[in-house]
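Progress note, sequence design subtask.
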């Protein structure tokens, strides 16, 4: 897949949901999933073209900071097919 992958990691579910909401409202991206990582960390993943994902992650990071703790933000422009396969195994919703 040629789409970019955007990731935002937060401490706590509220900040991650706020980030997810801001990301899909700010740009033409698709929410891939929200994954509890452990230790209170939650990662939100979106896909779209590179510009849209960059705009979405910026908006999501700002939103997460307003209501909680932002840990990390990263955009992968064209993830390798093995990364895509690994993401498929994670599922769509928080466990």
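Output:
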């Amino acid at each position: 897949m040629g789409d970019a992958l955007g990731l935002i990691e937060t401490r706590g579910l509220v900040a991650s949901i706020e980030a997810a909401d801001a990301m899909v409202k700010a740009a033409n991206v698709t929410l891939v999933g929200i994954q509890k990582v452990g230790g209170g960390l939650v990662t939100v993943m979106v896909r779209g073209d590179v510009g849209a994902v960059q705009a979405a992650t910026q908006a999501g990071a700002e939103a997460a900071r307003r209501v909680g703790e932002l840990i990390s933000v990263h955009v992968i422009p064209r993830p390798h097919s093995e990364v895509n396969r690994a993401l498929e195994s994670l599922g769509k919703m928080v466990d």
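The chain is about 45% helix and 35% strand. Work on this subtask will continue into the next period as scheduled.
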